[in-house]
Amino acid sequence: MKRIIMGLVWFIILYFGILVFGGGIAGAIEGAKAGSGEKSFNQGFNQGYQAGYTGGQEFRTKYASVILLIAFGGAVVGTFTGRLPGTKLKAK
User: Fold this and answer.
1) How many CB atoms lie within 10 A of CB 42?
2) Long-range contacts made by residues 33-39, C-beta under 8 angstroms, separation at least 24?
3) Which of 11, 35, 49, 78 could pair with 84 as two cysteines, CB 3.0-4.6 Å apart?
4) 25 and 62 in contact (C-beta within 8 Å)?
5) How many CB atoms lie within 10 A of CB 63?
6) How many CB atoms lie within 10 A of CB 26?
7) 84 in helix, strand or coil?
8) In the structure, what pLDDT confidence band is assigned to residue 2 with cuts at 50, 70 and 90?
9) If we measure between CA atoms, which residue out of 52, 74, 53, 72 comes closest to residue 64?
């Protein structure tokens, strides 16, 4: 039972980790593209921030199912092989 609970915890950790990390990278790339041609620092910053936020949102909605499958697969494989912390079987 402990392995199943730890597998679910690792699924949640992997899912949100990949979602936030991937959305952050996509947002940073979009923000860098959008803020490069502005004359004013504040205008460039605001435009880059908005593009970064929407770029991250687009990434999350576009790839949510793929991220879900990757996180589920990683959690299942890691749990059954005992590679994730808290899922290793004790030797008898």
Assistant:
1) 8
2) none
3) 78
4) no
5) 16
6) 20
7) coil
8) confident
9) 72
